[in-house]
């Protein structure tokens, strides 16, 4: 889920941005990942993005 991904990123990286800036950058990165095929996002607005495995 989006919340779990945010918690993981914050826990495992040194973040120097404010919370609102982090949210903005996180959402942009997530959107970019979906466009590049790193993440798969199901149809619908409230469904969480999914990590897609590349073998």
UniProtKB/TrEMBL annotation:
Ranges where the H15 domain occurs: 1-55
Highest taxon of the lineage: Eukaryota
Alphabetical list of InterPro entries matching this protein: Histone_H1/H5_H15, WH-like_DNA-bd_sf, WH_DNA-bd_sf
One GO MF term: DNA binding
GO CC, any one term: nucleosome
GO annotation, biological process: nucleosome assembly
Protein's recorded name: Histone H1
